[in-house]
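User: For documentation purposes, I need each entry recorded in a consistent format: the amino acid sequence on its own, followed directly by the corresponding structure tokens. There are two entries in this batch. Please keep commentary to a minimum and don't merge the entries.

Assistant: Recorded as requested. Entry 1:
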Amino acid sequence: MSINITRTSAPVGAVITDLDLDSISSTDQAELYQAWLQYGVLVFKRSVQSADHQMKLSRMLGETVIHPVEYMRQKDEPMLITLAANEGKTVPEDDPSANDVIGIIPWHADLMYTDLPTRGSVLRAIVIPEEGGDTGFMDTARLYATLPVEIKTRIQGLRILHSYNQAHLAQNMVKGSSTLFPDVIHPLVYVHPEAGLPVLNISPTSAKALIGLPDDEAKELLDYLIKHSTREEEAYRHVWEVGDVVVWDNWRTIHRAYGHKKKYPRVMYRTTLRSDMRTGQYLAA
């Protein structure tokens, strides 16, 4: 089998079309994994037809794990979580809130508010709104590479404090306690252990403070890094079709949900891939 891989027009990501997951060889699986490392984000079109296919693709890339936020898990398949603003419910067009935008999640890396951020995720579109609902992706290895030399020098050896409470309050599609996890500290820069690239390890939604600098200098530098890391011109913005699957390398990307109007449903299924790179330390410890 020849895998059809086409780079996106953005600085991150590639598209794979018409992949037959039922007959994929071990050689093709290895090529797929290398493409994931190379491009950071893989978009699958007309390739994943079912939850079984999604699980199969996920296990080609890593070990699936149960998401730590219990209410998101599916009862029949706990390795799958459902992402649906307003629980996938809609309101009539004449409802005063019908055009309110919901489901917005600012730029972030998954589970950066824990000591063990995920290896990656596999997201499949089940129900797509008539307009909106896009997802953006950014390459944090590129974000590091495009920093001025003097900034790279300043940030070497620094650590960053991430807050679940801050991330929770910034999202309008989640429920549950905002104190589920204590604050956690991660290195601000690390080398991707497989791709070998230095990464700006920033998750703007949960980034709370830089450790190792005077407060005023730390705030100024963090504000700069967040601004640098949220430039939309650096993003790949995926416009979903039903059945699309996007896989991202959480060790070298951040992503965001742009939201959609409340009168439209949007339902996504996601698997989470286990990480063996424990970069964080809880502040409470």
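Entry 2:
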Amino acid sequence: MRTMFVPIAAMLLTAASAASAQEVGEVGVDWLGNDIIVEAIKDPKVQGVTCHVSYFDRGVIDRLQKGNWFENPSDSSIACRQTGPITIGDIDMDKEGEEVFKQGISLIWKEQVVNRIYDTANDTLIYLSHSRQVQDGSAKMSLTTVPLYGQQVVWTNGKPQ
């Protein structure tokens, strides 16, 4: 059972994100109420691509035992696949890419983020799941790709060269 503790800041950050997530799975991992949550995220600027992100959701008992009420771990995993015809809108083409999704994983300072980067040389969309913090950034991340080579892809603004 998913914890009843949901920080107000997390709800506000999720509501302000570029894409919304739909919970599609919840796996209990122990008797303390800790779960692994699986969410589906559709890229708002790339139709036909769906990302599935999993993350650890700490239960109330675990929060009490560890004395850290206000955040979940930074760990996450991501897999993105073509789930329909691909149409690419006006996406950011720089090396940092573009934030596709974010949600709060602490009361105020820590977010789980998904960025999209377009690899022009290899005609591939890269999706990176990571956490962002004000300080003590985390090296925990996960990466997935959606190759466009040989696919029927519609670029609304023309394919970049």
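Summary note for entry 2:
The CA atoms of residues 33 and 59 lie 4 Å apart.
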